[in-house]
């Protein structure tokens, strides 16, 4: 619907003395309500939720994952593998291990990864951001459960570098 048509609808509501008009055309919906000498326009289009395809590039706005080496002062569970790299979450959101519930996980423990490989998806504000690896190595441990909320800088994976 164009601006000209919206203006005509507002004028029609004002002149006809009706208090409310609602128009729906395909995936576009508009409601015009008249209250105390003022006309209010409420514009609404349906939200479309899509998940990126596995072969799609990561969104430009998604920051790169934070990668750091685990030091010897790490807890005992990680002390034996002090040469592990921890891949951390670059944002707050919800962690997903696969592109959709009926698809296989991006990776499993023991899988080899290379820079650019998609590790998981983090949903933040209804945007699905693919998180890609910046290191190469073998996944030793996945530290989060599927569909669980995660925080910024939270460890997601332990990687044994090549």
Could you estimate the helical fraction of the residues in percent?
10-25%
Terminal Cα separation, in Å? 56 Å
Q: Please tally the helical runs, counting DSSP H or I stretches of 4 or more residues.
A: 2
Q: Report low-confidence residues grouped into runs of 5 or more.
A: 69-81
Q: Tell me which CATH architecture of the largest domain applies here.
A: Beta Barrel
Q: What's the number of domains?
A: 2
Summarize the structure in words.
By secondary structure, the protein is mainly β. It has two domains: 3-44, no CATH class; 66-161, Beta Barrel (OB fold (Dihydrolipoamide Acetyltransferase, E2P)). The chain contains two helices and twelve strands. It has helices at residues 3-16, 76-79, and strands at residues 20-25, 28-35, 38-44, 66-69, 85-88, 93-96, 112-113, 118-124, 127-132, 137-142, 149-150, 155-161. The strands form three sheets. Strands 4-5-12-10-7 form a five-stranded antiparallel sheet, with no helix packed on it. A four-stranded antiparallel sheet has the order 9-8-6-11, with no helix packed on it. The chain has a three-stranded antiparallel sheet with strand order 1-2-3, covered by helices on one side. A hairpin with a 2-residue loop joins strand 8 (118-124) and strand 9 (127-132). The N and C termini lie far apart (56 Å). Residues 69-81 have low confidence and may be disordered.
């Amino acid at each position: 619907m164009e601006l000209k048509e919206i203006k005509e609808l507002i004028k029609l509501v004002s002149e006809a003395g009706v208090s409310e008009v609602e128009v729906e055309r395909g995936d576009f919906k508009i409601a015009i309500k008249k209250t105390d000498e003022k006309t209010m326009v409420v514009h609404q289009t349906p939200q479309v939720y899509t998940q990126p395809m596995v072969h799609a590039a990561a969104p430009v706005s998604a920051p790169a994952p934070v990668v750091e080496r685990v030091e010897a002062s790490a807890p005992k569970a990680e002390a034996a593998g002090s040469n592990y790299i921890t891949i951390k979450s670059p944002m707050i959101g919800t962690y997903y291990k696969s592109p959709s519930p009926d698809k296989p996980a991006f990776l499993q423990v023991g899988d080899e990864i290379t820079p650019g490989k998609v590790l998981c998806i983090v949903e933040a504000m209804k945007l699905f951001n693919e998180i890609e690896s910046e290191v190469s190595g073998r996944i030793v441990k996945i530290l989060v459960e599927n569909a669980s909320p995660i925080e910024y800088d939270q460890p997601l994976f332990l990687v044994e570098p090549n």
